[in-house]
Structure formats: structure tokens, C-alpha cells
């Protein structure tokens, strides 16, 4: 995944801005960092954005993170 400092930086982004960034970013490290956001709504949206069916590519980092998120504490994220 991305660096610890980038992960912490993403956690400080307001939910509204993080949701917008989930939709707008094309940066792999950014979207992966957003999957660790403190708000489960952001994590769910970021997970949706890295879905292989949406990305239309087989990116190992995305698959690894999708599998990790099976154990997310939030129901909405696990159900995604």
C-alpha cells in the first residue's frame, strides 16, 4: 500500500472531499490510501472505485486490498 504519511494525510481529509477524490482521482496510491480512511462511507466508495469490474484491468494491488477489506469493521464496506 502507500506510505504511512500519505495514509495519515488521507485520514485528515473531510468526508465530503474524500468522497469527491474517490471519484476524481486516477492515482493508484491515492485511491488505495482512501480505502483506509476513518469514515466507512469513504472506504466503501474507494472500494467501489478499485473494483476490477469498474477499473477494467487486473491490478494486483487492487485485488490485494479488496481481499484485505473483507475483514473491514464496517458492515457497509464488507457488503460492497
TrEMBL record:
Official protein name in the record: HEAT repeat domain-containing protein
Amino acid at each position: 500500500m502507500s506510505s504511512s504519511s500519505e495514509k495519515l494525510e488521507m485520514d485528515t481529509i473531510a468526508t465530503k472531499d474524500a468522497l469527491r477524490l474517490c471519484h476524481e482521482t486516477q492515482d493508484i496510491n491515492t485511491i488505495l490510501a482512501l480505502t483506509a480512511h476513518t469514515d466507512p462511507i469513504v472506504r466503501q466508495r474507494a472500494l467501489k472505485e478499485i473494483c476490477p469490474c469498474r477499473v477494467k484491468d487486473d491490478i494486483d494491488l487492487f485485488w490485494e486490498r479488496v481481499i484485505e477489506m473483507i475483514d473491514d469493521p464496517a458492515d457497509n464496506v464488507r457488503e460492497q
